[in-house]
Specification:
By secondary structure, this protein is an alpha/beta fold. The chain has a single domain, classed as Copper homeostasis (CutC) domain (TIM Barrel), CATH 3.20.20.380. Helices cover 25% and strands 24% of the residues. The protein contains seven helices and 14 strands. The protein has an eight-stranded parallel β-sheet. Strands 8-13-12-9 form a four-stranded antiparallel β-sheet, with no helix packed on it. Strand 4, helix 4 and strand 5 form a beta-alpha-beta unit. Helix 3 crosses helix 4. The chain is globular. It starts with a strand and ends with a helix.
């Protein structure tokens, strides 16, 4: 059983290292511009390792202009010692396959789509994603035997695999054109300063995939819509996790320092109980 706290920058690292956690990772799935620079990441990874914790770096999904930058960063950090590298696109996974010192993990942006039958009957606002055996086999070709998923995701049991589950929030989508940058009217690299300023949303429309058009969410269904939060170019739904798995991830952006400490105090006993 492990509890990992995820940070997007190094700003709260000292705070998190004082908490009862097993691992700390730095990064996010959405944008390379948000990653701390190489030297800051190197110092952070060393600090985490010296504290006796597992250190991780989360690489965002790579576009053509950032692919080489991200793989070079991961290889440079891995040369300094064991490192968990979470990848969020198959190209980066293939490029890093076999890299000494790298434990590759399939990230949240590599989760499969959510089931949708285009039916007219009411469905839950969030259908859990379903991982197929064939998909896990594909990831194995890059040496991946660990994946990240939302708490409710359906993952088949497969020998040699582990699943780290994100608690209390569910990532829904990543935009290629960043809504946070547009909202604050900032361009690269200045927009990075606004990435961790959340924007709350309420869904009022939905795509009816069976007919290929957008429609208002019926009034009767609106109370069931989950709260949405935008961080950077990512949209999340927030919902407390009742049952956690053996390995969990907590995204520190969604908690104040006091709330994070309180959540860990509650979560650790439940995780221990779940692993018995």
């Amino acid at each position: 059983m492990t509890v990992e706290v995820r940070l997007t920058t190094c700003d709260r690292l000292e705070e998190v290292l004082r908490l009862p956690v097993d691992a700390v990772s730095i990064g996010q799935e959405g944008c390379a511009a948000k990653l701390p620079d190489t030297e800051a990441l190197r110092r952070a990874v060393e600090h985490i390792t010296e504290a006796g914790l597992r250190a991780g770096v989360v690489l965002p999904a790579a576009w053509q202009r950032t692919a080489a930058q991200l793989t070079d960063l991961a290889m440079s950090l891995a040369r300094r010692g064991p490192l968990t590298v979470t990848v969020n696109d198959l190209g980066t996974a293939a490029a890093l396959a076999g890299t000494a010192g790298c434990e590759l993990v399939a990230g949240l942006a590599l989760m499969p789509g959510r089931p949708h039958d285009a039916g007219e009957t009411a469905r839950r606002p969030l259908q859990p994603p379903v991982f197929e055996e064939a998909y896990l086999q594909e990831l194995e070709t890059s040496g991946i035997h660990m994946l990240e998923a939302e708490a409710a995701a359906a993952v088949p049991e497969r020998e040699g695999w582990r699943v780290r589950r994100l608690v209390d929030v569910t990532p829904l989508a990543w935009a290629r054109s960043c809504p946070t940058a547009r909202h604050h009217q900032l361009a690269l690299p200045d927009c990075a300063s606004a990435c961790d300023q959340p924007i709350d949303l309420v869904a009022t429309h939905r795509w009816q995939l069976g007919h290929g058009h957008r429609e208002p969410i019926p009034v009767a269904d609106r109370p069931a819509q989950v709260p949405l939060v935008v961080y950077g170019n990512a949209v999340y739904a927030t919902a407390p996790t009742v049952e956690a798995g053996d390995d969990v991830i907590i995204d520190a952006r969604f908690y104040s320092p006091d709330a994070l400490a309180e959540r860990l105090a509650v979560l650790r006993p439940s995780v221990s109980a779940a692993s018995l």
